[in-house]
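Annual report, structural modelling task.

Input specification for the S-adenosylmethionine complex:
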Amino acid sequence: MEWVGNMSKNLNQGEIAMQEFWNKRYSDKNYVYGINPNKFFKHQLGKLKPGKLLLPGEGEGRNAVYAARRGWEVTAVDFSVKAQIKANNLAAEHDVEINYIISNLYQAEIPVDTFDAAAFIYVHLTNDEAKKILQKVIAGLKQGGTFFMECYSEKQLGRQSGGPKDINRLYTIPQVRELISELNISKLQEEEVPLNEGEGHRGKAMVIRAVAVK
Ligand SMILES: C[S@@+](CC[C@H](N)C(=O)[O-])C[C@H]1O[C@@H](n2cnc3c(N)ncnc32)[C@H](O)[C@@H]1O
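The model returned the following structure:
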């Protein structure tokens, strides 16, 4: 696919700081969220016929590699080079390939009407950022393509089982409904789930899960 990330366009200090934060978080040899796919991701993906999958904010590749092993053609986007290296190593260990693009999601030029599915797994942005990025992600889906997401809800604040400590980067049901309002939503639920995903997501957590079709 002709799609190359570009990290050189003007990023503000806050965006550069975020990128550094994530590179630092991924600099350890351990996989912060483990090497197994997120449970909801695995469950939802299992309902679909393999095709082209977009994974914005994919991190160290646990979901991308799982999908590639099941026959999906995977494009991952993230601004962390450290994460990309670990994801590519994981892919090589399993003898699969993923297309891992280094780009800030704000700048990623996502090709339109291209993907059969897109999954947004624990990508915590402010509402304005999420709106801009999800518009591009949704435009990238083919008609009939499936979108699904899992993220921490605002009710996660104060819990020690992962997620940002900034309420502006946590989601609510009305927010998510608005963010994906262009799609036909078949599931949108807030629930408490037990997480056991590396050191980063561990313990009972309040999450929002959504599934929608374009
Ligand atoms: C909590 S991690 C989740 C990683 C992965 N989705 C998973 O579930 O294992 C959030 C990821 O989003 C990426 N990210 C956050 N903001 C981003 C941005 N503006 N552009 C690109 N990647 C971003 C981070 O580098 C990080 O890998």
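The radius of gyration is 16 Å.
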